Amino acid sequence: MDTCIPKEIIGxxxxxxxxxxxxxxxxxxxxxxxxxxxIERHLAYLCPMCLREGIIxxxxxxxxxxxxxxxxxxxxxxxxxxxxxxxxxKCNNDAGGLFENSxxxxxxxxxxDNGIISSQQMAKAEILDQSGKKIIPGRYTTKITxxxxxxxxxxxxxxxxxxxxxxxKWIEQSKTDLNYKIELTVPIVDEIKVSKAFLKAAYLFCFxxxxxxxxxxxxxxxxxxxxxxxxxxxxxxxxxxxxDSIEAENMKxxxxxxxxxxxxxxxxxxxxxxxxxxxxxxYKNIASVLVPNPTLTGWEDLKKIQEIIDSRIExxxxxxxxxxxxxxxxxxxxxxxxxWEKLINDNx
Length: 348
Fold this sequence. Notes:
Layout: H1 7-21, H2 25-32, E1 43-46, E2 54-58, E3 62-65, E4 69-74, E5 83-88, H3 89-113, E6 120-128, E7 140-146, E8 152-155, H4 165-174, E9 181-185, H5 191-210, H6 212-215, H7 218-228, E10 239-241, H8 243-249, E11 257-263, E12 269-278, E13 283-291, H9 298-310, E14 319-322, H10 335-346
Antiparallel strand pairs: 1-2, 2-3, 4-5, 6-7, 6-9, 7-8, 10-13, 11-12, 11-14, 12-13
Helix pairs in contact: 3-5, 5-7
């Protein structure tokens, strides 16, 4: 089967993830073989987001795909993400259209709210007289920019070449008639979409390290349900921003990627820290997502951790470290479970 994905990339995914997938024959063999009692030697990889579409290589038919695949950045490339993993095109496109685009808007909004030079915010403008009556009808797409001196500039025509007759006429008139006011409506970023975008990225960080043990775990299944809107995440706000806490606590090093939240002891869990960048201004911030442990109570345990975090004004004594042991890169295929055991034993 022809594919635009280089065979070297497919081969690297086979090498890294198939040993993990092979531990779950009951979950994937029926997707590729009509008779699961007659299985030839093969390599396989499933889309980690849907676990339905896959890539397989076997002597009898060579390389085959059940669907088109593409490399997916996590977090999205638009906010500085650079790690990539193969997912089916449908999952990639659906996430981009449904919620991932919200991250770029969120970073633009945070950058603007922090007064970062060159930050921009799109809005809708209505032009009114002093009594509040519209001078010209309509609402106009407007760009608000923070200048080099910190002042705010409003552009009623972000694309100067656009021909908007009523607006053009009023702009010319306003040069001598100052009896007007401009009312701006700034769209609010959909925080539910933002949370889903972060949760998907955190899921892929976990899959990258732990492979199919994580994907087939109750946590993995539940996260996929959250992304579909079927259930809610145990944290009311699965993502929080670390930049202010880091500056307040003078934390010079914050581990990125899949990590342990080691201390406070009653907040122990997994946490994914992601560095994001608003490319237009270079503004950076770290977003963190709490991830449940693999125990039977892991989902509920995260609710308790959220309550503890909410009750503390400052995260004093916080301690985090990378998850570097028990990963599929080191040929450990129950790393999700073993990583949790290590965290508990190291802090007991």
